[in-house]
Amino acid sequence: MIFATLVIVILRSLRRIHFTLVTFFFGVVGVIECCIYCLAIGRFDIPDSAWEWFLITSVGILTLTGQILITLALKFEDAGPIALVRTADVVSLLSQRLYNIIFF
Fold it and tell me: Which of 7-11, 69-73, 85-89 is predicted with the least confidence, judged by mean pLDDT?
């Protein structure tokens, strides 16, 4: 939660910068982190099937859309309601995971 708070504070301070630039640099940082992680564990696998490529592309598109929407929301709205929605997102994800563990 500390890093999520830092992201909100940083995005609020960058509200005058265009959202595509902010989203691009968040993506660059993510790619660098993934490369460091792959080097650390010594493994990098290319997806084998079209289904895996579809899933990876879908996750990428949805993540990019979510990051753009959060960046725009923090640009035009106060940080309080957005932080509350992000917290509710985490709580709903955890409750869904617990539901899957318990019943399936």
Answer: 85-89
Residue 81 has pLDDT above 90, yes or no: no
CB 44 within 8 A of CB 38: yes
pLDDT digits (tens, 9 = 90+) for 18-40: 888 888 988 899 899 999 999 99
Q: How far apart are CA 15 and CA 76, in angstroms?
A: 8
Q: Report how far residue 12's alpha carbon sits from residue 75's, in angstroms, rounded to the nearest whole number.
A: 6
Give whole-number Cα distances, 9 to 25, 41, 95, in Å. 16, 32, 27
**Mind giving me the DSSP string for the chain?**
-HHHHHHHHHHHHTTTS-HHHHHHHHHHHHHHHHHHHHHHHT------SHHHHHHHHHHHHHHHHHHHHHHHHHHHS-HHHHHHHHHHHHHHHHHHHHHHHHH-
